[in-house]
Amino acid sequence: MELVRLETPEKAKSLLAKAIASIPKSERVWLAAAQREADKTMKIKILKRGLEFISNSSKIWKELVELVDENEAKALLYRAVECLPTDLELWLALAKLETYDKAKVILNQARTHLPQEIAVWVYAAKLEESYGKTKDEIVKMIGKSLKVLEKNRTIMKREDWLKEAMIAENSGNPFTCEAIIIGTIGLNLSEEEKEKAWLEDSENCEKNGFIQTARNIYMYMASYFKGRKSL
């Protein structure tokens, strides 16, 4: 790779061809060979050839999917999740390209392979909200996810869930945002810590422009600490 860096473009291509012949299971060499090509068709050809040697290369799959059209990307991603069933990004990328019904099947498969992954549940909630599920239904869904994640001994951090709530706000999923706050805002907090922590959370959200998330925290606090006029 150092010699390739120092050489002229044409000589570098020749060196990369020799490197591929010598170490065909090097992800780095295949990616470098593709990046050196100006022609998109040739890039795709090189990456596909690389996958014949290292089908479990997440980087090569993702690079390839970025270069092809939607239909081919979908076909590639079905193969990719077979080769890399624990790669979250590949599952979510595939779900985004599929119809509602097929996306639900894909997310169920993803949960089977990634039972401790919070993002799969959150994406599923966003999908259901986008297709007309009510707030109560989304709240139940997030509640169910918490039970399953706890059963699978997932270490659930309140901060991680709060980030997911903000992402849901940004992506236009207000029910998912509120459901996350309702289900997770009290995680790992003692009774004495709650008010201070929640006020800090809401103020930070507001300061960073996540108004809906901040509002949801205040609404939850107003319900939890009933009769507090300031809230």
Q: What is the ordering of alpha helices and beta strands? A: HHHHHHHHHHHHHH
Mean pLDDT: 95
Q: Could you tell me the strand content as a percent range? A: under 5%
| Unreliable runs | none
> Kindly, what is the distance between the CA atoms of the first and last residues, rounded to a whole number of angstroms?
60 Å
User: Could you say which overall geometry the principal axes of the C-alpha atoms support?
Assistant: elongated
Largest sheet descriptor: none
Count of extended strands: 0
Helix content: over 70%
Structural class category: mainly alpha
The DSSP helix count reads: 14
- Radius of gyration (CA) equals 23 Å
Q: Care to describe what's here?
A:
This protein is mainly α. Helix content is 76%, strand content 0%. The protein contains 14 helices and no strands. Helix 3 (27-35) packs antiparallel against helix 4 (40-53) and helix 12 packs across helix 14. The model has no long low-confidence stretch (mean pLDDT 95).
Features:
231 residues, mainly alpha, elongated
Briefly say what this structure is:
The protein has 231 residues and is mainly α. Helix content is 76%, strand content 0%.
Topology:
Blueprint: H1 2-6, H2 9-22, H3 27-35, H4 40-53, H5 58-67, H6 70-83, H7 88-97, H8 100-113, H9 118-130, H10 135-151, H11 158-170, H12 174-184, H13 191-207, H14 211-224
Helix pairs in contact: 2-3, 3-4, 4-5, 5-6, 6-7, 7-8, 8-9, 9-10, 10-12, 11-12, 12-14, 13-14
